[in-house]
Amino acid sequence: MPLNILATAVIEGTDKIPYWKEIRTIAPYVAGVTAVKVWSRGATNQWRRNMHGKVYIVTGATTQGMGTSVALEMAARGAQLIILVRRIDEWTTEWVEDLRSRSQNEMIYLEQCDLSDLYQVRKFATKWLDNKPARRLDGVVAMAGNVEPAWKGVRKASVDGLELQIATNFAGVFHLLDLLKPSFKAQPPDRDVRIIVTTCMLQALGNVQIDDPLWQGAKYDRPLKFFGSSKLQLSLCMLELQRRLLEVDEKKVDGRSGKNVTVTLVQPGIMRSTSLRRLISNGSVWILVFLYSFLLYPILWLLTKSGYRGSQSVLYALMTPEFEEINWKDDEVKYVVNCSISKFSRKEFADAQLQKKLYDNTSQKILEVERAMAIKRNVGKKKAASKK
User: Fold this and answer.
1) What total number of domains does the chain contain?
2) Of the residues 185, 231, 259, 334, which is catalytic?
3) Which alpha helices (H) appear in the chain, and where do they start and end?
4) Do 100 and 34 share a structural domain?
5) CATH code, domain carrying 185
6) pLDDT tens across 227-272, in order?
7) What is the pTM of this model?
8) What residue numbers bound the domain in which 243 lies?
9) Would residue 231 show up in a list of annotated catalytic residues for this protein?
10) Whether the Cβ atoms of residue 167 and residue 216 lie closer than 8 Å to each other
């Protein structure tokens, strides 16, 4: 059919093509929409990697968007996944069974670990580290995140009393990776270990509080400021984490350089995710149904990515050979945007002293919160025992 139309246009002229005037009128608009959509969907990861036998800890995999797409691709390539979830219930059990079926990989496991609960994070990390010889770990893919409605002034707190976005997006992820440092360093020097942490362009709205990194004394005035700050502070701490992982014990003569463990920050772009839906709807079901689903969805479809498209940058960071030790050009954390290495824009990313102080203060503040909560739990246990 296309050849017949083309032949008619060449031999008899375009006027002989049925509905030519209508086609000529509509064609520029169709071409424009197509061009915008091709641009907004972003690049595709072109690298492929065999992951059979490799072991990864994954957070944020149950989103049914980017996280699920990443987990499915990793599992289909043979990776063993330890997926951290807030709770193990009927839904998560069915979800992991579906993932095993779709990927034809039975080596996918759920572990309860609510990142907003520092005690649960320590329990998981301690259990992981309490093994001799050290358990194999080829990387961590941290994609979990929480966004609170932007126009509601109600502060939600974690079990530790921290603002929920700070607790989930910053404190929990930081605590997990900080505690797992011995596991990263214990991996053989020829093992390519990758720590991939997703961030967001809204980190441009964030601030850094060196002396109060958990924002315990901050006024809850703008929820988006807390979200952006949680992402910004986590990104800055990841630069310091890379430096600490590069520190090598000179007494060990095993060819270890520390460069086999890489930290990568990934900005997947604006996606039609649960976070975006919550941001636009402000937590209202009615606004979600009418504003997001009906009025804005055509525009969002045109200008934003699907979860699958957003996953491409994470998969690029996971599979590209550019991050292998043999291909290292410098010791800096790489920032991946649209399946390519980009540059940081904020001045804080060039301040190593600020990053170090933020890392140390965050570690100290988390320890203080953990001690306070441990005392509280012990008091609760004694009261419960006395009642019995």
Assistant:
1) 2
2) 231
3) 2-11, 20-40, 66-76, 90-103, 118-129, 164-165, 173-179, 181-186, 223-246, 274-281, 285-287, 297-303, 307-319, 352-387
4) no
5) 3.40.50.720
6) 999 999 999 999 999 999 998 765 565 667 788 999 999 999 988 8
7) 0.90
8) 55-269+305-376
9) yes
10) no
